[in-house]
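As a representative case, the lines below give one protein's residues and fold tokens.
***
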Amino acid sequence: MSDLAPGILIAVPQMDDPNFARSVVLLIEHNESGAMGITFNRPSDVALVDIGKEHGMDVHPDAGPAFIGGPVQRERGFLVHRRSDVGDSVQLQEDVFLSVSTDALRTLLAGDPAEYRLCLGYAGWGPGQLEREMVAGGWLNSGISSKRIFDTPVEKIWEAVIRDLGIDPAFLVQGGGKQ
């Protein structure tokens, strides 16, 4: 087991990769073979209603967009949710679950949109890559917070998880704290 996964990775402002600018990643797996995570704070242009229609599924009328889970396999969906009653789910923390099944998608799309995030694609790191990026100062890490994943407005997640670490995000920004 890794000390990092399951957990949260927070991209620092100086992150060069545009795929991860101000990203917050739910790190699912981390071992000697590499790491895998799902970004959950970057809304996509894909509406959940459109995904539901495409698959013949009912979608809650308040459903918003899917999220950009990462740059790898964007056609693949990952459901991060907090419903213990959804089958085919892996529990990451007491109130955070992960599923990739169509049945789970059907159940979650029809329910309360505040209970889940459908993330398209994932972030992947090769052996030792994430460790090198962390040593270089590219990522902060913390424990999983369902409050941050599901209850914090998406545009405030990045700042909120950094503040949860006791850090003022202004001190992380190059150029004297301007954002």
Notes: The chain is about 20% helix and 35% strand. The first strand starts at residue 7 and ends at 11. Confidence is low (pLDDT under 50) at residues 175-179. Residues 102-110 form the longest helix (9 residues).
